[in-house]
Specification:
single chain, about 230 residues, alpha/beta, Rossmann fold, Arc Repressor Mutant, subunit A, 2 domains, 11 strands, about 40% helix, binds calcium ion
Length: about 230
């Protein structure tokens, strides 16, 4: 999952980038409204954390522009304490959730998990596909109850595939949702990661659909679904 973090406070930015990275997200950062506007319109994020008090263009205006452009990405806004009118303006502009500063990083992570999950159409907190099970709270996965040893990129890949199980996902889409913008994005590396993932979860769980991409499926005899 790839997140855009829009925040102008350098300390908070450092802290959040670290926490989001540890939680398994690829993170892009925008320090002002102008860059946020540009990135949000041009990159396919799975969720956006948007501070409202920003240099150049304020957060509410940024959000309004995104929604006018029909950008449907879930947005969590960060508001200053006591500024209830900011919250109202944020929701009116199209925010999906909010947190008031100061907040606990854990709460931000929990809210983001819920946002990402709901926007992909899943109501339950854990995800499964047959006997494959993912717990996004702990960034862990199991097959038949056996824990898998995954690198963070392998976990991200599996998370994305599980979230969109049954649908064919192109390499380009995977690259866009797994890597941040500074990463050297070579879509050939996806094939390598799919290969490694197959070794760990079983070769038949990830189908290759020639010329189109990959699809996560439940094995025959397993119940599919979430
Ligand atoms: Ca600010």
């Amino acid at each position: 999952m790839r997140i855009l973090l829009v925040e102008d406070d350098p300390d908070l930015t450092r802290q959040l980038k670290l926490a989001l990275g540890d939680a398994g997200y690829a993170v892009d950062h925008a320090p002002d409204g102008e860059e946020a506007l540009y990135l949000g319109e041009n990159e396919p994020y799975d969720a956006i954390v948007l501070d409202l008090g920003l240099p150049k263009i304020d957060g509410v205006s940024v959000l309004e522009s995104w929604r006018r452009a029909h950008m449907a990405t879930p947005v969590l806004i960060l508001t200053a304490r006591g500024a209830w009118s900011e919250k109202v303006a944020g929701f009116d502009a199209g925010a999906d959730d909010y947190l008031t500063k100061p907040f606990h990083t854990e709460e931000l992570l929990a809210r983001l998990r819920a946002l990402v999950r709901r926007s992909a159409g899943h109501a339950a907190p854990s995800l499964s596909c047959g006997s494959l099970r993912l717990d996004p709270r702990a960034a862990r996965a199991t097959v038949d109850g056996e824990p898998l040893r995954l690198t963070s990129l392998e976990y991200r890949l599996l998370h994305y595939l599980t979230m969109h199980q049954g649908r064919v996902i192109s390499r380009t889409e995977l690259v866009e949702h797994l890597y941040d913008q500074d990463f050297d994005r070579d879509s050939n590396t996806i094939e390598v990661f799919i290969g490694r993932l197959r070794k760990k979860i079983g070769p038949d769980r990830v189908e290759t659909v020639r010329g189109l991409g990959y699809r996560l499926i439940a094995l025959e005899g397993e119940a599919s679904g979430v």
